[in-house]
Specification:
The complex is a heterodimer of chains A (about 290) and B (about 170). By secondary structure, chain A is an alpha+beta fold. Chain A has four helices and 13 strands. The longest helix of chain A is centred in the first third of the chain and has 14 residues.
């Protein structure tokens, strides 16, 4: 018979030698210059600042009047950087438009371009109600994908997963504290708030999606963007952040990357009511927290 | 003055010795928790390496790190940014004590958890951290940590075929 699970976990995960201060100091690249180092010169920040100043007279953004169809078109004029007011407008318009709708969320981890793990969610949202049908590919090749369904209805959290009986069933968490945080993925609409006041975006060009022309934006300094709204979709500072917005300044697509994770979010059916109801026969379980 | 600071003073000059002592105190305060979280996330070898890189970063930017309210949480995110996920799965070194009998499938069962579930299970259930402490370190809400813990334990127990009472 094996020992208590907690003891086993501790024994397995507590076998590394501590890292000492001396080791850290010796490992540091230039410890003798630490007191004299200059703030690193950031080319991106410098260029972004220069372009932002130079672009102040070109803030009239009328990309919609230059709407070619077909493949993405690069604009043949100097970089245009959006103002903070413009970003705020995009955020406001998107938040209003996305009162209801659907989203496809994918999250992939990779190493040197080779995929490691993938998970995706088909998300439906209507007001505060939200449903996520999640599929997680296994890390171990040959194992089955792990699927689950998370649902938030009327402030109550439900999950379709193996329950107390071992069989997959709907479970209702009767502890309603901060149930939105119980969802596997954050509400896609909260991702908008990564834009925040520190975001600086440039226009890359336009492309056509169905009958809609989308404008492609890219963050100039993605590391400065807020990662808290991204929840578990970011594993550190962002290395890239891109948006595609429609002629009404509504975000239709997002793509962002952090250390080893790439996420895409595609919105559809914005403003169309969605039916999200509490599942029948859910087993009540008092969740901790 | 401790002996190590004296030796480093000889190497680096008097001006930095007091900072070394301060940094040593900082490492004593945060290293164990930072290493525990990074080992839980990446496994023994990569986790320790990530801890060393994060603390080296802290020394390189000590003037900025020192006054931070949640320096450990910041260094955890630095470690994540610096650590590249490898093809090899998360591996934990064999236990150093033979007094605890470890289920042979425990390693694989821990690997089957998501990163956040494994963090919550190892740190809260294994090492007795509070959910708020895990939340502060990895930048999540305490209730989110609790939910990751519940899901992770449920899946772990199902995989190992053990009861709730362990």
């Amino acid at each position: 018979m094996t020992d208590n699970l907690a003891l086993q976990i501790r024994a397995l995960c507590d076998s590394t030698e501590p890292v000492t201060a001396a080791e850290a100091i010796l490992r540091a690249r230039r410890p003798e210059k630490r007191r004299h180092h200059l703030r690193p010169f950031s080319i991106t920040t410098a260029v972004g600042a220069f372009v932002a100043v130079a672009s102040c007279a070109a803030i009239a953004w009328n990309v919609s009047s230059k709407t070619p169809t077909g493949p993405a078109t690069r604009l043949a004029h100097p970089r245009i950087v959006l103002t903070a007011a413009r970003l705020h407008h995009i955020l406001a318009k998107s938040s209003v438009a996305a009162s209801s709708g659907t989203a496809q969320v994918t999250q992939a981890t990779s190493e040197n371009g080779a995929p490691l793990t993938n998970q995706s969610a088909a998300v439906t949202f209507d007001g505060a109600n939200i449903d996520e049908q999640i599929s997680v590919e296994p890390e171990t090749p040959g194992s089955a994908a792990f699927t689950t369904d998370d649902r938030l209805v009327g402030g109550q959290f439900y999950i379709y997963t193996p329950g107390p009986t071992g069989a997959r069933e709907w479970i209702h968490d009767t502890n309603s504290a901060d149930d939105a945080a119980s969802m596997q993925f954050p509400d896609p609409r909260t991702l908008y708030h990564a834009l925040g006041p520190r975001g600086h975006f440039e226009i890359l060009g336009t492309s056509t999606s169905g009958e809609t022309t989308l404008t492609h934006l890219r963050a100039l300094d993605p590391g400065a963007l807020e990662t808290a709204p991204l929840g578990n979709l970011a594993d550190g500072l962002l290395t890239s952040f891109e948006l595609w917005i429609d002629p009404n300044d509504v975000i239709r697509r997002m793509a962002f990357s952090s250390a080893s994770t790439t996420v895409t979010v595609s919105f559809a059916h914005l403003g169309q009511p969605q039916s999200i109801t509490a599942p029948h026969g859910a087993v009540d379980v008092a969740g901790k927290g | 003055m401790n002996r190590r600071a004296a030796l480093l003073r000889e190497k680096m000059g008097d001006d930095t010795a007091s900072e070394v002592e301060q940094f040593e105190g900082f490492v004593v305060a945060v290293e164990s928790r930072l290493r525990g979280a990074l080992v839980a996330l990446y496994g023994s070898e990569v986790g320790r390496e990530a801890t060393a890189e994060a603390l080296a970063y802290a020394w390189e930017h000590w003037d900025r790190i020192r006054p931070m309210e949640n320096a450990a949480g910041y260094l955890f995110r630095v470690a994540q940014s610096k650590t590249r996920r490898r093809r090899t799965p998360v591996v934990f070194d064999p236990p150093q004590t033979v007094e605890i009998r470890v289920e042979p499938m425990l390693q694989a069962a821990l690997r089957s958890l998501s990163d956040k579930q494994r963090l919550a299970v190892v740190l809260v259930h294994g090492f007795g951290w509070q959910a708020t402490e895990v939340a502060d370190l990895i930048g999540l809400k305490a209730t989110t940590v609790q939910n990751h813990l519940e899901r992770g334990l449920r899946r772990l127990r199902a995989t190992l075929g053990v009861d709730d009472d362990d």
